[in-house]
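Let us work through a complete example step by step.
Step 1: write down the sequence.
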Amino acid sequence: MQYSKCLSGVVVACGAIAFAQPVAAQSGRVSTPVGVAQVGLEGGWTISNFVGNELDNASNRNGGYGGLTFIVQPNSSAIGFQTGVLYVQRGAQSTFSTGGSGIPITTGGVKLGYIEIPAMLRIGVPLSLAGVAPTIVGGASLGWRVSCRAITEVGNLTSSSNCDDALLDEDRDVKRFDLGATVGVELPIKLGARYLVVPSVRYVRSLTRVSDSGGDVKNSSVLIGLGLRFR
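Step 2: predict the structure and record it as tokens.
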């Protein structure tokens, strides 16, 4: 398998969201002019791969993710909005042999890192089991590439190169921006009056290609995480 390669530079976009002062403190909730807000931390494990009709022998690459989460839920509504700022590791790998006796197996891969801003709708499921009510999330994911490394392992030897190294290959032009679609489910669990522990699973699939020169190759990732939110 051949992987598409990278373009120099990095653009990191971060958004900051301010909301109105808390009211109704006795309820343990932070209120805004549009409803109830939650802020918190989220992190976990990523299982990533490349998908496309020009790939051969691609396999999953494990990584991690983490960052901030911000939610607004209108009062007395099952529908809300979720965003945040996350760092997400993606990529893929492939194992192959050049053939012949005594020739070691070679593993090649690409490690990608993105700063991502999700923009998702939240829909509460009218079901509660032992006080846990599932929530379905879905929407878009805006990603800015901040790192890319090409990894090669032959036997006990490992080499790593920056995809943005202009001396390596003119075709290394992994895009800086990645637009994806995401869908998932969360299980908010109350921890006292003002905190939530939130296990979650999300699937993210790129709508744009990883590279302009590498065919129809796109990112595909599963994010398995745990969050702690203040409300």
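Step 3: interpret the result. The chain has no helices and eleven strands.
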